[in-house]
């Protein structure tokens, strides 16, 4: 498996990047067949209760989809292994200590965090402190 597994290296070398825009989590009942091209989700997950879509807020608004909150997207720019142990735990523990919730998404090359929009700048600063 490619990617870094050493927790100290991961924490010291990650460079969190705050992406533009706000994102939302929406759900559609099964058997939903949305026009994914128009929605352009950055993620989706099939759950027993329905299809969860993660997409830009303005696309959800245009489609009339409901959501409960808005989030900003932070990418942890270090190639973390899918088998790395403790990386997301350390990151989420740091954010939790400051009352910041996090919705992590693991992808092949990087881990991504969706944090409440109002706390995104604070979350970014806390994550950058790992490198110091």
Automatic annotation (TrEMBL):
Name by which UniProt lists this protein: ACT domain-containing protein
Domain DUF2241: 2-72
Classification via InterPro entries: ACT-like_dom_sf, DUF2241
Pfam family, one: ACT_3
Coiled coil regions, renumbered to chain: none
């Amino acid at each position: 498996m490619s990617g870094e597994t050493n927790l100290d290296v991961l924490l010291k070398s990650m460079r969190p990047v705050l992406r533009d825009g706000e994102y939302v989590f929406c759900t559609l009942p099964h058997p939903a067949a949305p026009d994914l091209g128009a929605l352009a989700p950055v993620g989706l997950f099939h759950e027993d209760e329905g299809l969860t879509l993660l997409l830009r807020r303005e696309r959800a608004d245009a489609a009339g989809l409901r959501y409960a909150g808005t989030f900003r997207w932070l990418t942890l720019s270090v190639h973390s292994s899918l088998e790395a142990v403790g990386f997301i735990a350390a990151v989420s523990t740091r954010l939790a200590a400051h009352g910041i919730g996090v919705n992590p998404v693991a992808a092949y090359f990087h881990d991504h965090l969706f944090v409440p929009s109002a706390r995104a700048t604070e979350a970014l600063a806390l994550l950058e402190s790992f490198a110091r």
